[in-house]
Specification:
With 430 residues, the chain is α+β, with helices and mostly antiparallel strands. The protein folds into 3 domains: 87 residues, Nuclear Transport Factor 2, Chain: A (Roll), CATH 3.10.450; 137 residues, Roll (Nuclear Transport Factor 2, Chain: A); 118 residues, Glucose Permease (Domain IIA). The chain has 7 helices and 22 strands. The strands form 4 sheets. Strands 11, 14, 15, 16, 17, 18, 19, 20, 21 and 22 form a 10-stranded antiparallel β-sheet that branches. A 5-stranded antiparallel β-sheet has the order 1-2-3-4-5, with helices on one face. A 5-stranded antiparallel β-sheet has the order 6-7-8-9-10, with helices on both faces. A hairpin with a 4-residue loop joins strand 3 and strand 4. It is globular, with a radius of gyration of 35 Å.
Length: 430
C-alpha cells in the first residue's frame, strides 16, 4: 500500500503545471495535410465580391440626364430615383456638355453609383444604399504647387506659352491682371518678357488646372509692370503694383480679348463702304464672328437694339460722365435689356458684321461729358486703392514675391526648358 501511495504521488507531481517563472511548454503542432481539390476551404465558402463594370465619359452636347442614362440602358425608374436623391444638393437638369461622368454597374445590372463633375472644385456622388440612392457634393482635393513660369515673346504670348508647354488659360489670366494697363491686342512686341509665380493644381501628380497667379512681372516695350496678389483681412482680393496701387481701373483698355485693331480713332478716315472721308471716333477690333464682347466698366444699359449703319449696338452709361458704345454686334447677350445693370467684364454681346460693315469687327467708342475721346489714350486712376491699415501686410507679401521672382533664371536660359508638367487633364477627377 505504501508503494502504491508513493507511486500515485509521483504521477500527480509530474502532471502539475510549472510555476510562473517557467516557460510554458507547447505541444508539438500536428502535421498539416494538403487539402484535396474536392475539399473546399473555409474561404471558398465565403461569397465573392460583386463584379463591377465602370464606364467613364463626357456629357454629350444637348443631352439631358434622362437621355444620358437611357443611352446606357437604365430605366426611367432609375433616372427618377437618382433625380429625387440628388435634388437636395444638385439639380441634374443642369448637366453641362463636356463635363465628365462615371457610371458603375453591379453584376446583376443594377446601378451601383453615379458621379458627375459639377465644376473644377466639386463633383456629385450618388451611391446605391439598399433599395434607394444617397447623393452628396464632394470637394475635389488638389495638391497645390507654387511654380515659376518665365519667357520671352517671339511671335505672340500664346505662342510663347505653348513653347513652354503651358496652357492658353495662363495667357488669359495674365492679360486679365494687366487689362487696365496693357492692351494685349496692340501693345505686345517681340522681345517683351515676363516671369511669374502661379499655383498649379495637381491630381495624382498630373496637372489639372491653374490656380491663381501669385505675382507677375511683365516688361512691355522697356516698361516694367508688376502685379502682386493680395487678400486683405476682410477677404477682398486684388492685384497691386510695387507701390501698393491697385491695378484695377474704372475702364478696361479693350472690351475684346486678343483681337487686332483694324481701324483707329480718326477725324478723317476713308469709310470702307461709303468711300468718303468722315470721322471715325472709335476703335475697330477685328475678331471672328461670335467673339465675346464685355462691358468696359460698371454701368447701366442706355440703349440695346438696331442703330442704322452701326447695326446691333449697345450703349452703356457709366459714372463721371462716361458712356461707351459697342457696334456691329451679331447678337446681344441673353437677358440684356435697356436699363439692365452691368459690371465690368460682363459679356454684353458678340462680334458681328451688322450695319455698314465689310467684315466681322467691333466698333468701340467712348464719350466723356458729351465728347468722344480716343479709347487707346484714355488714362484712368485706380478704382480701389489699398486701405492704409493693410499697407504693412501688403509690403510683407510683396517682399516675399519679389525675392522669389528675383531668384528665377532670366528668360533666355529657360524659355524652352520649362516642360515640367505631366499633362493638363486628369483622366477622371474623382
Amino acid at each position: 500500500m505504501v508503494s502504491a501511495i508513493l507511486g500515485m504521488s509521483l504521477i500527480w507531481l509530474w502532471l502539475l503545471p510549472d510555476g510562473p517563472s517557467a516557460a510554458p511548454v507547447k505541444p508539438p503542432a500536428a502535421p498539416t495535410q494538403p487539402s484535396s481539390p474536392q475539399s473546399p476551404s473555409v474561404s471558398d465558402n465565403l461569397p465573392s465580391p460583386p463584379q463591377l463594370r465602370v464606364v467613364e465619359g463626357k456629357v454629350p452636347r444637348n443631352a439631358t440626364f434622362a437621355q444620358l442614362m437611357s443611352s446606357h440602358g437604365f430605366s426611367p425608374e432609375t433616372v427618377y430615383q437618382l433625380v429625387r436623391a440628388s435634388r437636395p444638393v444638385y439639380n441634374l437638369a443642369r448637366l453641362r456638355a463636356g463635363n465628365r461622368f462615371e457610371l458603375e454597374w453591379l453584376a446583376d445590372g443594377r446601378l451601383n453609383s453615379f458621379r458627375y463633375q459639377v465644376d473644377s472644385f466639386k463633383y456629385l456622388k450618388v451611391d446605391c444604399s439598399g433599395d434607394d440612392y444617397r447623393a452628396e457634393l464632394i470637394a475635389i482635393e488638389y495638391e497645390k504647387r507654387e511654380l515659376p513660369v518665365v519667357g520671352t515673346i517671339d511671335s505672340s504670348l500664346f505662342g510663347t506659352l505653348s513653347d513652354l508647354q503651358e496652357k492658353d488659360q495662363l495667357a488669359l489670366d495674365m492679360a486679365e491682371i494687366f487689362s487696365w494697363d496693357i492692351d494685349f491686342n496692340t501693345e505686345i512686341q517681340r522681345g517683351d518678357h515676363f516671369r511669374l509665380m502661379v499655383e498649379k493644381l495637381y491630381l495624382e501628380d498630373r496637372m489639372v488646372r491653374y490656380g491663381s497667379i501669385l505675382a507677375v512681372e511683365f516688361n512691355n516695350a522697356g516698361k516694367l509692370y508688376t502685379g502682386y496678389r493680395f487678400e486683405d483681412p476682410e477677404g477682398e482680393v486684388g492685384y497691386f503694383d510695387d507701390r501698393g496701387r491697385s491695378l484695377k481701373r474704372d475702364f478696361l483698355r479693350s472690351p475684346v480679348k486678343f483681337s487686332r485693331i483694324s481701324s483707329r480713332f480718326s477725324y478723317r478716315r476713308l469709310h470702307p463702304v461709303l468711300r468718303k472721308r468722315r470721322p471715325h471716333l472709335g476703335v475697330d477690333y477685328a475678331a471672328p464672328t461670335g467673339t465675346r464682347v464685355v462691358a468696359a466698366g460698371n454701368g447701366r444699359v442706355r440703349f440695346r437694339g438696331w442703330k442704322g449703319g452701326y447695326g446691333n449696338q449697345v450703349e452703356i452709361r457709366h459714372g463721371n460722365g462716361f458712356t461707351t458704345y459697342y457696334a456691329h454686334l451679331s447678337r446681344f447677350a441673353r437677358g440684356l435689356r435697356r436699363g439692365s445693370k452691368v459690371v465690368q467684364g460682363q459679356v454684353i454681346g458678340y462680334v458681328g458684321s451688322t450695319g455698314l460693315s465689310t467684315g466681322p469687327h467691333l466698333d468701340y467708342r467712348v464719350r466723356r461729358n458729351g465728347v468722344f475721346v480716343n479709347p487707346l489714350t484714355l488714362k484712368m486712376k485706380p478704382s480701389k486703392p489699398l486701405k492704409p491699415e493693410y499697407r504693412s501686410a501688403f509690403r510683407q507679401v510683396k517682399l516675399k514675391w519679389q525675392q522669389q521672382l528675383a531668384a528665377i533664371a532670366p528668360p533666355p536660359e529657360q524659355t524652352h526648358q520649362a516642360s515640367s508638367a505631366h499633362g493638363f487633364e486628369a483622366d477622371f477627377i474623382y
